[in-house]
Amino acid sequence: MASGYLLTSADIATVLHEAGIPAERLLDVITVLDSFVIGSALDVAAPDQVWDAAQARTPVLVAAIGAAGQGRARADRAFELGLDLMLGAVSALGSPRPDAAARRCAR
Known about the structure:
By secondary structure, this protein is an all-alpha fold.
């Protein structure tokens, strides 16, 4: 795999395949991960106050806006939640290949 934190699509496909994701789902999963990362990057670059409580149409949304906080802390919390949800969903798609751990150790 690539050194550092830069992973290529080939690296990601290999890891997902070794985790048991079927070949017919690999590009779907990679696309979902790409979309999530791009959306999260846009969220970090967004203004500190993304939603305006004065424009909210329901008390539930007003309360959610007030409870969420603002800025980077809110964006980071949302990213971590989304990542946890996605990793859980991805792991449910497949089961690890028995030979995957041995190949990783051999690298």
